[in-house]
């Protein structure tokens, strides 16, 4: 459903804990359980407890995993920005059929294989500037909590044992389907759950799987074995957050059966189990088909970041509402790369100017005097950021409008600064400083503020552009020199052709006075295929969104 068409639930109005803002506003989120927007009210004032389902670690993570991580990282950052103390839990599944199959193929120990990919995942998350969660529990470290919850479920007659396996009796939970709207009979054996004639009901699902030869196992009251998939999140969320917490998140594909089964398990173990808000991010699609490992139509995060800067990828991911489908598109990735280059170039130019004029800046502790245009710009940016973020994290609407107007005003003020006398510059200098501060606050909440200097990130973006163009900087410098000679000979047609040739590769030449410099740009024509690393397979070219 289009997020823009959702109606806001106006009940239970409350004001978030916004810092240093006088305007009152309400943070609303879309709750999958009620299928409407609701004002966010944590169970404990000032504190938020949030659980997000993580990855099953048996391979490098793909673009869909990146979207889920970035979506909930933005939520995490925004809640902290509002002043909440947030406990954020995101798990790793390191005991699973897929992991065991992959380990058998490679001859590795399943836990060691999964540990390796957990570490690779965290490298990707660091590159994408996702903050580390408060806790990152793994299934293999929480067997006692899982077995305790299964025991509670059995004792309350919601689970039963068959030859060392433990199944959840789905038909005994009367509210099954309240999250997804799916009926119990839709959970047919052979589609969502494994076929097993020993089950009392085809919809019953495994809580504990009896040990099989060559698989990892743990001792339990029902014999050696390992947990089913769904029980792990119920047990670990209860362990770290209690049975009552504020937000449970994950991808749209987890609503049924995973989250539906989590609700059934948790409520069976504890009648008072309650999650206030269920939040789900939309799929990443390839040719409008869900991107996933099982379909073989995915790109890994590493494949993308070999050619595009991680911050360009993050920009691409948040340049759509987190609940909307996001179609993979090289055109949009190129646009995202161009957008972040413009942002960081503008901020670098601003920073350089302020450093040069540092001596002219007052240090008397008085409020800065700024131009009327700057004052209006800051007010508009601050208000637009509050309004859009508080409306279910509408990040895509923040990266346009007032934000771009602020960058444009910075560039205008920098031009003005060059033309003014020293005594006239103070207002402009202070205006630049205040706008820069406001822009960087927005970037910080969105996770787009680079961890290094603007100069460094610009050099990194240029290096990625050269990689995509199949060039090194020496090639560009040589072509610039050749073009300069052509221009001296007044062969302007050839000069334009040389410029167009580079522009088609994503390299823009700019003549500044007698000097020619280059920067990345969106290619006029581009190859939408990502070149794989050695040994990696790449799916067919996607259609541009």
Automatic annotation (TrEMBL):
Q: Which Pfam families match?
A: tRNA-synt_1e
What cofactors are annotated for this protein?
Answer: Zn(2+)
Q: Which UniProt keywords apply?
A: Aminoacyl-tRNA synthetase, ATP-binding, Ligase, Metal-binding, Nucleotide-binding, Protein biosynthesis, Zinc
- tRNA synthetases class I catalytic domain: from which residue to which, for each copy? 40-336
GO BP annotation list: cysteinyl-tRNA aminoacylation
Under SUPFAM superfamilies, the record lists: Anticodon-binding domain of a subclass of class I aminoacyl-tRNA synthetases (SSF47323), Nucleotidylyl transferase (SSF52374)
Gene Ontology cellular component annotations, sorted alphabetically: cytoplasm
EC assignment: the record states 6.1.1.16
Q: Which Gene Ontology MF annotations are present?
A: ATP binding; cysteine-tRNA ligase activity; metal ion binding
Q: What class of enzyme is it?
A: ligase
The membrane-spanning stretches of this chain are none
Family as reported in the entry's similarity comment: Belongs to the class-I aminoacyl-tRNA synthetase family.
> What name has this protein been given in UniProt?
cysteine--tRNA ligase
